[in-house]
Amino acid sequence: MFSDRVFYLFVCVISVQCAFDRSEGEPCQLNEQTWGKCAHISRCLSSLLDLQKRTHPVICSFQSREPVVCCPDCEVVNDTRTAIVSNDGAVFFRTGQKARDKCIEHLLDLPSSCYTKGLEGLWDDSKQCQKYKRKGNIASSVAVGGKDAERSRYPHMALLGYGYDRDSAQWQCGGSLISKRFVLSAAHCISDTVLGPVSFVALGILKRTDPDSLWQTYDVQRIISHPEYRPPSKYHDIALLETVQPVRYSKDVFPACLDVQGFIDLNPKSDDEDKPFSFEQILLDLEREETTEDQSRATATGWGRLGKNKPLADNLQEVKLQKFTDEKCSKLFPPHRLLKNGYNPNWQMCYGDENEPRDTCEGDSGGPLLVTAQVSYCLHTIIGVTSYGKACGYLGDAGMYTRVYHYVPWIESVVWPGPY
């Protein structure tokens, strides 16, 4: 009886060793009908998705205690440890650029499921393997032109309060939530000549007259204007406000992404034909192409005046604007006391409408100029901060916006300091 047990144990050990002796690149069998190739688990995208679903991959062998798995994918990736899987199962890759990666990470905190534009797996019958492609686009539902915004449409929107207590505060400029502790705004909004520095940030509201239960109001503990800002000049008109308490995310309060056009190439161009295939770079290339196209039109939002000599808006307003050429912007904003050298295309941009009197107005300062984020239709990307303009509401005029992309390294150093 003892010898039978020893023989049975010996057979089990030999069976396990035989099952776990396949090296990377060798064929392997997932089930009766599906075959794959052995790959390190960190290079198999399907294994990452399986683990997200609490399904264990088939093991080929181990390398230094790390599993080599039977991978059904047509192509392996560089490293799944840089990947993020959104609520709807789409895959994105971190690049090491803080602002972009934080935008991707926002997908994990979305209060509800949302359509995203990452990679999705599709079975290739001809090759008998799993291939990955970017999810297709769907129509965006952004409203057009100087209209009331809908509740929860712009959950990053902030209203800035001035004064010594919340009950008597004056709510003037706008801003945008970009993390749990920071709001992005214009530098000329950090202080009022009568009321003093900005003291409060209000989030979660659509209307100034919303009931108190909808207002999420936070005290401001730190105000950081750009180090090169010199009032009354409109150059470098950008600032960050840090709240005392971390912000609570919800469907009505959620951060926006920052414009990061200069993506990091994971596989720089070279003459090496054997460089590894990179899903990561495909995603980044597509994002870069769409960013250039999408910025020809953008949406500005704010609670500013409804027109020249008109009252401040009660309901948050949204207006669709056209991007003007640098030549046109230079003519509209020549050198003067607020712009010593005139319009600067590296730091600024201007948007308006050639055919209708659309524009931001007094009280919209500090608010965002937006496009739909390239990662999800539920997120927005801030490409500009409302800075300066002439009398609003005139045909062919434009507003001046601080170009966010230029200031991303400074924003990252303040909002996400230290190594990443």
UniProtKB/TrEMBL annotation:
<feature type="domain" description="Clip">
    <location>
        <begin position="27"/>
        <end position="71"/>
    </location>
</feature>
<dbReference type="InterPro" id="IPR033116">
    <property type="entry name" value="TRYPSIN_SER"/>
</dbReference>
<keyword id="KW-0732">Signal</keyword>
<dbReference type="GO" id="GO:0004252">
    <property type="term" value="F:serine-type endopeptidase activity"/>
</dbReference>
<protein>
    <recommendedName>
        <fullName>Serine protease snake-like</fullName>
    </recommendedName>
</protein>
<keyword id="KW-0325">Glycoprotein</keyword>
<keyword id="KW-0378">Hydrolase</keyword>
<keyword id="KW-0645">Protease</keyword>
<dbReference type="InterPro" id="IPR022700">
    <property type="entry name" value="CLIP"/>
</dbReference>
<dbReference type="InterPro" id="IPR043504">
    <property type="entry name" value="Peptidase_S1_PA_chymotrypsin"/>
</dbReference>
<dbReference type="InterPro" id="IPR001254">
    <property type="entry name" value="Trypsin_dom"/>
</dbReference>
<dbReference type="InterPro" id="IPR051333">
    <property type="entry name" value="CLIP_Serine_Protease"/>
</dbReference>
<feature type="domain" description="Peptidase S1">
    <location>
        <begin position="143"/>
        <end position="416"/>
    </location>
</feature>
<feature type="signal peptide">
    <location>
        <begin position="1"/>
        <end position="18"/>
    </location>
</feature>
<dbReference type="GO" id="GO:0006508">
    <property type="term" value="P:proteolysis"/>
</dbReference>
<keyword id="KW-1015">Disulfide bond</keyword>
<dbReference type="InterPro" id="IPR001314">
    <property type="entry name" value="Peptidase_S1A"/>
</dbReference>
<dbReference type="InterPro" id="IPR009003">
    <property type="entry name" value="Peptidase_S1_PA"/>
</dbReference>
<comment type="similarity">
    <text>Belongs to the peptidase S1 family. CLIP subfamily.</text>
</comment>
<keyword id="KW-0720">Serine protease</keyword>
<dbReference type="Pfam" id="PF00089">
    <property type="entry name" value="Trypsin"/>
</dbReference>
<dbReference type="InterPro" id="IPR018114">
    <property type="entry name" value="TRYPSIN_HIS"/>
</dbReference>
